[in-house]
Amino acid sequence: MRLGQGLGDALTELLAVLAPVECTCCGAEDSALCGGCARQLRLLCKRPFRAEGQAPALLTVDGSVLLPVVAAGHYRDELAQALLSFKHLGQGQLASTLAPALGKAIRAAVGDKVDICVVPVPSSNAAFRRRGFSPVHLLLGRLRRQGALPGLEVKDALKKGRPGIAVQTLMPALLARFQGFAGQVVKASQRAGVGVGAPAPGSGQKGLGRGDRARRVRGSMTIRLFRKGSLEGRVCIIVDDVLTTGATLAEAARAVSAAGGTVCGAVVLAATRPPAGNEFSQMRPGQPKIDSNKK
After folding, report:
1. Buried-exposed string 210-221: b where 16+ CB fall within 10 A, e elsewhere
2. Does the CA dihedral 204-207-100-24 come out positive or negative?
3. Which of 112, 115, 138, 222 has its CA 20 to 30 A from that of 152?
4. Looking at the domain assignment, is residue 178 inside a domain?
5. What is the distance between the alpha carbons of residues 176 and 273, in angstroms, rounded to a whole number?
6. Is residue 60 part of a domain?
7. Domain tally, the chain
8. pLDDT of 130-169, one tens digit each?
9. CATH code at 215?
10. Among 77-91, 172-186, 208-222, 244-258, which is the least confidently predicted range?
């Protein structure tokens, strides 16, 4: 992990406990998330589902899947509010509710498979300085400390920088690696309902369309200097907080693949509503999970 990340995560959670708070969803005092809202958030994440169907950057023009994605829940209501407050308002206590939801989605994606690298999508340097922590790293760190990821190895291998100029395009590389990954291992259930009760997550990409997002992140991720070779020959899953167009996950998968890793899929805490139509409704209950066997 980046220098000071572990200490920063611990301090973030400690300060959040010491600071007076109110429920981020309903305003009840003395808790960042009251019991009732916490229960609603857990219900929203009760059934992880396959979400790549709403992410155009993860599909070919004919609809073939480049990168399968499992989401813990839909980006709406209590989940959206909690995630926004966790990321942008310093509500570190919310990790105690968000981390188990993410862990459940990871397990739903890989089943009982082991010896898989979990590769978090890094925050940009600017976002890290602003927040003082990386949301995905903090959640994964909590899961790891609690022993909630048995048989999985978290690899803080990626870093963000300025987008590159001449970079290998995503589609041919991913299509060769990922064709047929979707639709193979265990059961993945889908929650009923898709309504979004909160705005898209605040970030540098807010309001950007598919093409703008893809251009903004293309070539922006590389392997950390002291992690060179650490992903060679390893089966990997990418983990991020929110799925929108899929451009960020696609760039992370490109960087991991270029480093010799085999990316079998991705996991996110929340998936936003499809930009046009309701692709979620086209995904049948019982749709398979990510296949981590293929290399």
Report:
1. eeebbeebbbbb
2. positive
3. 222
4. yes
5. 28
6. yes
7. 1
8. 878 889 999 999 999 999 999 999 999 999 876 553 333 4
9. 3.40.50
10. 172-186
The answer to whether 16 touches 93, Cβ cutoff 8 Å, is yes
Instruction: Quote the tokens at residue 280.
Output: 């979620």
Widest Cα–Cα separation across the chain: 52
Residue with tokens 């193979």: 184
CA gap 53, 282 in Å, rounded: 8
Domain assignment present for residue 255? The answer is yes
**Per-residue exposure over 173-208, b if at least 16 CB sit within 10 Å of its own CB, e if not:** ebeebbeebbeebeebebbeebeeebebbebebeeb
Residue 284 CB contacts under 8 Å (≥ 6 apart), including other chains: 190
Structure tokens at 81: 């509010």
pTM, two decimals, is 0.75
Q: How far apart are CA 94 and CA 103, in angstroms?
A: 14
**Angle between helix 247-258 and 210-217 (nearest 10):** 30
pLDDT tens, residue by residue, 24-61: 999 998 788 999 999 999 999 999 999 999 899 999 98
DSSP letter, residue 259: T
- For residue 276, how many other CB atoms are within 10 A of its CB? 8
Q: CB under 8 Å to 155, separation ≥6 — which residues? A: 117, 118, 119, 227, 230, 231, 234, 236
b vs e for 64-83, b when ≥16 Cβ sit within 10 Å of the residue's Cβ? ebbbbbbbbbbbbbbbbbbb
Got the DSSP string for 205-242? Answer: TTT--HHHHHHHHTT-EEE-GGGTTTTTT-EEEEEEEE
For tokens 């893809």, the residue is: 214
- Judged against a pLDDT cut of 90, whether residue 185 lies above it is answered with no
Within a domain: 52: yes
pLDDT at 275 over 60: no
Taken in order 126, 127, 130, 136, the sign of the CA dihedral is negative
Q: Is the dihedral of CA 56, 61, 63, 64 positive or negative?
A: negative
Whole domain around residue 243: which residue ranges? 47-288
